[in-house]
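step 4 of 6: structure.
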Amino acid sequence: MQMKSPFAILISGLSLLFIALSALIYRSIMDISSVDTAVPSLAESNGDRAVKDTVYVGVISRFSPNLIYEGYQPIMDYLSDATPYQFALRLSSSYEETISQLDRGDIQAAFLGTFLYLQARQSHPIKCLLKPLNSQFQPYFHSVLVTRADSPIQSIADLAGKRLALPSPLSFSGNWVLKVALQEHGLRASDLDSVHYFGFHHTVIYEVLRGNFDAGAVKDRVAEEFTNKGIRILAVSDPIPGSPIIVKSDLDSTISNAMKTALLKIDIRNPEDKKIVKNWDPEFFFGFTIAQDTDYDQMESILTASEELP
Amino acid sequence: MIQMKSLKTRILIFLGLLIIILLILISISVLYQWRSLIVENQRRNALSIAQTFSLYILDALIYQESGLLQAEGLIENHIHNFMAKNDQVKFIELYDQNGHAVVRSDYSNIDLENEKTGKLLVDPAESALTIYQSEIYGWILEVKLPLQIHSKSWGLLRMGFDADTMRHKLNQLFFTLFSFTILFIAIVMTAIYFRIDRLTRSLSQLVAEMNDFDLNNMAPMQMPASDDEIGFLVTNFEKMTNRLRQSRKQLLQAQKQMHQAEKLASIGRLASGVAHEINNPLHGLKSCLYAIEKEPHNLPQMVRYLALANEGIDHIALIVQKLLGFSHQQAKQVTKINLNEQINMVLSLLQFRIEQSRILLEMHLESQLPLIEADPHLIQEVLMNLLLNALDSFEADGKITITTATENDHTIGFTIADTGCGIADKNLDKIFDPFFTTKEEGRGTGLGLSVTLGIVEMHGGAIQVQSTVGIGTSFQVTLPIEENR
């Protein structure tokens, strides 16, 4: 048998080593299996919340449902953590349906609009609990009239013959434009080209931005989202008492008191509280104050005002 | 046959291994980085698609829940259309808040009994990205996303994306890099092999030139000029050979001077014998001149005495001529000589001293001794030195034996043996050293045997000495018949 030279043995050994290494690497490269890599998610853990009595809270359909969940669900989570009760949202397809839910007992509390509250308190057993503060820590908001930033409309008087977009007929903003703002400038709804109601405040803005309508009325909190994004504010209402959180009159006072205590505790000047409200709807960033039914009496006139008066 | 111990092989193996290891490390590093990029890209892509799709599903669920949207089979249609337009997606499944499957894109492999019993299949709050091999779909990248806004949950979306494409890309990447590595190693190793071959060939050529080196050959080295270390080596080797030639020239000059000094010393040692040789004919001349002066008219006597005087003068002239011939300093001149004649010539110069010292001279000269190529003057010097040393070794009477013989077709030899005092063992190794002498100061230079050895070796011969103190000494000299060139 012929002996191989050391060089040949070395080369053979190295070649075998190279092939073995290549096979090993190939196997390692091709094995892509991985188990349960955590992925980033918008979701928050439910935690280990104990089973509690559930308080259902309604929200008028002022925004799209997902926006409502984004902005209001964190408030429910906060209340669930800060009180002995579990709070859950129940959305509706319209402003009126929220009132129906209250009547049916599907919900025990609700975020209502100012106009709807003024109307509903007359015939439904509800009472207001809290109202939100604005950025100046005042319990007011404003309705605003907006146009596209490049629109030639410079005042409400220019709206004659123009197309107007409004949120729900039960929204304060819509009623303010038709019953107050236009009349202050000697116009009536019939002087306009057209008036169209949309489901959500945001839809009003989008319609104006798209040029389908010349002007629209929304809550100031919505208009601020679109500042520097193509929207110009044409007119601002007088201060209006903030949209109230109401409860059914027969709701156990311990529940309503627990809600009041928890929400009144929020003070965003406190860094811990600032973290809590981070994901809340901007209307509630600055906390709440006690609301009395009488706070809204001054606005009663808007209920009786006619759209067609001079 | 590749020799493991050769410089070429060792450099090749060392550099080869170094480069192969480096290339493999680089390739592995690149491979794993690209693998990571491909996998990460696929994961991001799948996650992005799943998150976007989950927003649609979530909106549909919320709108349906709030009564704003009531359309039959909306989500099923959406899933069907989405999968029809996106072949990466292998399956989509929707689970409710309790973990029950409510919508599936593929019911073909589902056990409906399990579905109906409401067995909890997934954790609706668990978001995860998993890659695994499915029996039905092959390699799958699965994304599970809770359909949730803050703590409000509508269930969980589970989407399976094709991961075989990713493995195909990885397979291509591996073999591309593998081929590239092999090719690159082959190119680099070939380049190194030829570069080293060129280098070692220059070294081999230099070694061959060094082997063929001859101090007598003044021709320049036949090496291609180069600016590298080999060129530097060649230049320095040439400088060294030049220095060697210069040294040899100086050595020859010194040897020449040494020979002459030794020769003059030998003449000194011959002086008394030569004086006696000249003195005898001079006495004869004086007697002849006295007889002629006494009887100037005896013509026949005058003629006879003048003839005797003339013979005496010729004898003196012969002695002087021999002495001049011995002392004559000239360059080595090789001719064909008869060693026996050279021995007789030297003995004639020593005749008086031999006769005077009552020494018996015994000659065994081979009559058919071949002629040898040698310088007669140098050979005479060798003979003279050895015979003078033999004569000096006697304190009283003794015997000198001179033998010549043909040793083989190429060599002859002669031996000069005496029955003198002999050489002590401790001195035997030193007798050929220059300036080594055991004689009293003024009687010897210590150069005789050193010069003798030099001359014999110059002719390509050798000297052997055997000596026993009190018994005698024998010098055996061998000389080539034809001088080695």
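step 5 of 6: annotate
 - DSSP finds ten helices and 14 strands in chain A.
 - Residues 131 and 289 of chain A are 6 Å apart (CA to CA).
step 6 of 6: archive
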